[in-house]
Design goal:
The chain has about 120 residues and is mostly helical. The protein contains 3 helices and no strands. It has one domain. The longest helix is centred in the C-terminal third of the chain and has 58 residues. Keywords: Membrane, Transmembrane, Transmembrane helix. This is DUF2304 domain-containing protein.
């Protein structure tokens, strides 16, 4: 049963890497968050196959393997979904900040032009 758990953990790590890469390509996650998920996927793959890191697999009881995998996968992918939502909100916030900056700059130029016209009328 430990072999099944090892392969399942490695498979979850590979799926996490693929989903992270695809989300990064389609700009659903930012660079920093994407790199953190990349490291977590690589860590899961290493924990599945490196002898010193997979000793925890033998501690999990055989009856709890499916529950452990289901709960772990659900937690990981829901956390990934939440982090992708946070990334999208960060991108939208940055875009809104740029729009506000452009509007402030346009407002300032209109005010300068208005002041120039007032000065020309007063002369």
């Amino acid at each position: 049963m430990s072999d099944v758990l090892q392969l399942a953990v490695a498979w979850i790590g590979i799926m996490l890497l693929v989903i992270d890469f695809m989300s990064f390509v389609y700009q659903k996650v930012t660079e920093g968050i994407g790199i953190l998920w990349l490291f977590l996927g690589v860590l899961l793959i290493l924990c599945a196959f490196v002898p010193g890191l997979n000793a925890w697999i033998y501690v999990v009881p055989k009856e709890a393997v499916s529950a452990f995998l289901l709960a772990g996968a659900a937690f990981l992918f829901s956390a990934f979904y939440i982090s992708s939502l946070v990334s999208q909100l960060l991108r939208k916030n940055q875009e809104l900040a740029m729009h506000v900056s452009l509007l402030n700059q346009e407002n300032e130029s209109i005010l300068n032009e208005l002041n120039d016209r007032k000065d020309m009328q007063n002369l």
